[in-house]
Write a structure and sequence with these properties.
Layout: E1 4-6, H1 20-28, E2 34-39, H2 42-56, E3 63-64, H3 69-74, H4 77-90, E4 95-100, H5 102-107, H6 111-121, E5 129-133, H7 142-157, E6 167-175, H8 181-192, E7 197-200, H9 204-207, H10 226-230, E8 235-241, H11 246-256, E9 260-263, H12 269-283, H13 289-309, E10 313-317, H14 320-332, E11 336-342, E12 357-359, H15 362-367, E13 374-377, H16 382-388, E14 392-394, H17 412-429, H18 444-454
Parallel strand pairs: 1-12, 2-3, 2-4, 4-5, 6-7, 6-8, 8-9, 10-11, 10-13, 11-12, 13-14
Length: 455
């Protein structure tokens, strides 16, 4: 990485960035029987609701405190109180996560103080866990909100064990927001094959994996339970995935003494070798034959695919951890990162090999993508790809013009292998066969030079 450039445009064009508020709301949706609540205007919640519905194609539980102009000036205590009374009375959730927005942050509402007063006057809330998180949407980005929400859940819900009674087979897994429900299912299968019992926080594979429930629920249907969250302090270790989860893992370690291991990414060969080695060491079990075979399949796929990846120029736009994972993997396959655009500062950006990294929008990506062989970003990049006549590979959120976004798998040996096939097939489909006009020997200068050399 040579430098990080911050776009100095007067306005954002075709935004890449999403707010902290909806990042935190999505993290709260990874808890069973939960209801995210955005403390702000109705439009703040409506935006996130539409985004999630289009991406997951599922019913999304989200509520708002519906701040009006008067409430914004005078304070939002009554709005928060009335929203909680309505939610608990109608939906009866086990957990409510309250995210602030720009309006409530600018006003300076003390949501933590609000909750103390509300609990003291509403005993019906005793059986409902309430967690608030500060997520101003005028700073940070989607992954920052996700990380803040996970950290707050650890601070408020994880119980400190009285004695050192760590469960030798139970481990915690803190996935970043770039880890899909399909990725979580894959990681669960890998971890359980070593005889370990993983607790994922959050666990979108249970709540947003696209299954048909037996009966309708206005709250999340699946995900990690409150009892599991409370027991995380008794686990043997914590696996954090993505730089964004480092803070949450450190908070859990300081609170409970559970050590952590951070994996910056799980896409690629060497990083999955490290994961398998770590799981084998903490479980005392050998790597299952299934994954030894998958490793061989991945190596073969890398051999088959490197002919089509080598030298290809790729333009990427994504949240920092997803950007870092994809960029590093593409470089390992022989590609060149022509440009990288992201949303917020992160240490993960230091691992990217690119001439320039831009904190900007999709217009910044488009301006720097001319001549690239592939654009990698979410569905809002489709217009830029069409204008430049460059193929688009969709990653991240939202993906609303393709099916199965929540089941994409790009972790583990199998996920990396499938990623090679998907991207490699795009390169194959857009390869141009040489013609007499494009063949280097068609140039008279080249012919003359070659003839002279032979003489």
């Amino acid at each position: 990485m040579e430098k990080i450039t911050v776009s100095q445009k007067c306005c954002t064009v075709n935004p890449l960035k999403m707010s902290q508020s909806i990042g935190a709301a999505l993290a709260f949706m990874g808890v069973h029987n939960a209801m995210p609540l955005l403390h702000g205007a109705q439009g703040c919640t409506s935006f996130g609701l539409v985004l999630f519905v289009r991406h997951f194609r599922e019913a999304i539980p989200m509520q708002t405190t519906a701040m009006s102009e008067v409430a914004t000036v005078l304070g939002g205590f009554e709005n928060v109180e009335q929203a909680l009374v309505n939610i608990v009375g109608r939906a009866k959730p086990a957990f409510i996560g309250i995210c602030t927005t720009g309006i409530s942050e600018i006003k300076g509402d003390d949501v933590s103080g609000f909750l103390k007063v509300i609990r003291a006057t509403h005993p019906e809330f005793d059986s409902t866990a309430l967690v608030d998180v500060s997520t101003p949407d005028f700073e940070g980005a989607f992954q920052d909100g996700w990380a803040a929400a996970v950290t707050r859940m650890i601070e408020e819900l994880v119980e400190v064990p009285l004695l050192a009674t760590q469960a030798s087979k139970q481990i915690n897994v803190l996935p970043g927001c770039h880890i899909t429900p399909g990725d979580i299912d894959e990681l669960r299968d890998i971890i359980e094959s070593f005889g370990l019992d993983p607790i994922f926080l959050p666990d979108l594979s249970g709540s947003l994996d696209g299954h048909i429930p037996e009966e309708f629920s206005s709250t999340t249907m699946g995900g990690v339970t409150l009892d599991q969250i409370r027991s995380m302090g008794s686990s043997a270790c914590t696996i954090a995935i993505g730089e964004q989860m480092r803070g949450a893992a450190i908070t859990l370690e300081h609170r409970t003494g559970v050590p952590y291991r951070l994996f910056e990414r799980l896409t690629g060969l060497a990083v999955n070798d490290a994961l398998m080695s770590y799981l084998s060491s903490i479980s005392g079990a050998a790597v299952p034959r299934k994954y030894r075979r998958q490793r061989g399949q991945l190596v073969d796929a890398m051999l088959d695919g490197h002919f089509y990846f080598g030298g290809k120029r790729v333009a990427i736009a994504a949240e920092p951890d997803l950007l870092s994972a994809m960029a590093q993997w593409l470089c390992e396959m022989g590609c060149v990162i022509q440009t990288a655009v992201t949303t917020t500062q992160s240490p993960a950006l230091e691992r990217i090999t690119a001439k320039e990294i831009v904190l900007g929008d999709l217009e910044d990506l488009e301006m720097r993508s001319a001549g690239a062989d592939l654009i990698v970003t979410h569905s809002h990049g489709r217009q830029a790809a069409e204008r430049l006549n460059i193929p688009l590979f969709r990653i991240g959120m939202p993906i609303f013009d393709r099916l199965g976004a929540n089941h994409q798998v790009s972790v583990g040996y199998r996920g990396t292998r499938e990623l090679i096939f998907e991207v490699g097939n795009i390169f194959l489909a857009n390869a141009h066969e040489p013609t007499p006009a494009s063949w280097m020997w068609a140039s008279s200068d080249v012919q003359h030079g070659a003839f002279t050399a032979m003489q």
